[in-house]
Amino acid sequence: MSAMYKQVGVETSISGASPHKLIKLLLAGYFDAVAEGRGAMKAGDMAAKGNALGRALRIVDEGLKASLDLRAGGELAQNLSDLYGYVCLRLTHANLRNDEAALDECNALMQPIREAWEGINAGESHTAYASGMELRA
């Protein structure tokens, strides 16, 4: 029953969220999924590990990377795209090799992105979108 309430809460957060809030939710979801994957890795639960790290990978690839506007964002958007691509490769490696150091590396790369989005005032987020971090519908 708890999972159902959590799902409803997530759907409610998403339905009324600004693009700025959506990116923050994606980043929070990424860190939660990596933490879940790490816990499953330590517990030897390979199915849960694969599901969690697969979710983290999809968040980065299908959420964060796909939301970039490479034409409008120029070098910044391209650099983020490259970073997200690399994080996806390292997440895959971590999943296949049970490599916690790779998870640490991914989190170390993603933490400055998270901090940057946390530091953006929602009212000022239009500048970030114009710089190539636009969330496209």
Uncertain segments are 4-12, 125-131
What proportion strand? under 5%
Give the overall silhouette: globular
Number of domains: 1
Task: For the structure shown, list the relevant keywords.
137 residues; mainly alpha; Four Helix Bundle (Hemerythrin (Met), subunit A); 6 helices; 85% helix
Description of the molecule:
This protein has 137 residues and is mostly helical. It has one domain (2-133): Four Helix Bundle (Hemerythrin (Met), subunit A) (Up-down Bundle). Helix content is 85%, strand content 0%. The longest helix is centred in the middle third of the chain and has 28 residues, at 70-97. It is globular, with a radius of gyration of 15 Å. The protein starts with a helix and ends with a helix.
In short:
This protein is mainly alpha-helical and 137 residues long. 85% of the residues lie in helices and 0% in strands.
Task: Describe the protein's topology.
Layout: H1 2-15, H2 19-43, H3 46-65, H4 70-97, H5 100-119, H6 125-133
Helix pairs in contact: 2-3, 2-5, 3-4, 4-5, 4-6
